[in-house]
Amino acid sequence: RDACKAKYLLASDQVTEEQKEAYSAVVENLQRPSKTTYAGAAVPSNETQRMLAHSETERALTATNDLAREIAEAETPSGDQTVSKKTLEYFLNKAQAYVEGGAVDSCVESVQKLFEEAIAEGKAVMADEDATRDEVMDASLKLLKAIHALDMKAANKTDLEMAAELADMIELSKYVEAGQKEFKDALAAAKEVLADGDAMQDEVDAAWDELAAAMENLRLKADKEILEGLLDELAGLDLSQYTEESTAAFRAALASAQAVYADETLSVMDQQKVDDAVAALKDAKDGLTAKADDSDDGEGSGQKPDTDKPGTGTSGSDSSQTDNGSGSGNQAAGSSTPKTGDSTPILVVLAFIAMAAAVAGIVVRKRFRA
Question: Which segments cross the bilayer (predicted)?
């Protein structure tokens, strides 16, 4: 009978593989007769064997009952168990107090969301009169996890935000290629950390360090404005009128300057190289030597005209003499003609004498009358 009961229990769908393996040996011992029984009977032949058989029977019976109990517990609905909400209510009140006190506001986003969900779930279970034991336990555990996560404070991202803003203001076209990839990667990583609501302070600090170093390592391009203007100025220069030697030196300096101008790797640290190229090109331009003039017509030779040819200086001499003679004649004519203002003093003197004589005559006549 016990063997049949055990076999029945082992055939149940609620029995696990581990249980089947553990209880199968018990069932086999119950079915197998002892070798020491008389004529193969189920009753042992002596007291010792009977005691042993009784012990095995008790063990098998206990195992069978344990198996039956485990199956019964597995088949019993959890709702039939006693449910208490005291623990749930305690942690629900604690969680709400942390939220109302502002302690949750400084936590990372995931913790804030966990508090929100745990409190909502806890309230729902508390209001459900038919809530199961498992539902109460799950809601309590979620509230407890939220409370334990209060130490996960949100990082201070002010420094990283300002560094990223500064990085966005950089015009990479003004910088050499070296270091730009590292800068772009650091900026992208910084923005990713800024967007992560669960980023911790050490992550934020590490992102700031990387971005600051990447910005510092950028190098401005060398100033090539003067070199560019000089190259434009000499672009249409006709070298056919200069000697081969000076032209060769100029071409070499020009090629070197063009190579320096095209080199995008030159930074402000290499400014001297650009300045040297400008100076060398200017010297080569100033050193261009014009070819000698091989024409036979004498034009542009810079020679003075031949003054020994007949009649070359005669007209000039005659003209000079004519001018001098004319000047002398005018001077002579001027000396023989009195100036207009020379007669004025004489007339004044004569008039004064006449007046004096008239006065003297009047005085003499008055005396004779007297």
Answer: 346-364
Residue with tokens 């779930």: 121
Mean pLDDT by 10 residues, the chain (370 residues): 56 65 65 49 52 60 63 53 88 95 93 95 94 93 92 93 96 92 96 93 95 95 91 89 92 93 89 93 92 59 39 40 42 41 52 58 46
Task: Enter the DSSP assignment of 223.
Answer: -
DSSP tag of 155: P
Phi-psi domain of 46 (left: phi exceeds 0; alpha: psi -120 through 50; beta: other): beta
Supply the pLDDT for residue 292.
83
**pTM for the full predicted model:** 0.49
CA distance 290 to 240: 9
Residue 226: closest CA among 183, 191, 261, 263: 261
In the structure encoding, which two tokens stand for residue 284, read together?
A: 């080569």
Q: Domain ranges for the chain, please list them.
A: 2-76, 86-151, 158-217, 225-286
Residue 17 · residue 76 · CB < 8 Å: no
Contacts of 182 (CB under 8 A, 6+ apart): 214, 217
Q: In CATH, what class is 158-217?
A: mainly alpha
Q: How many other C-beta atoms are found inside a 10 Å radius of the C-beta of residue 204?
A: 22
The angle subtended at Cα 205 by Cα 199 and Cα 207, nearest 5°, is: 80
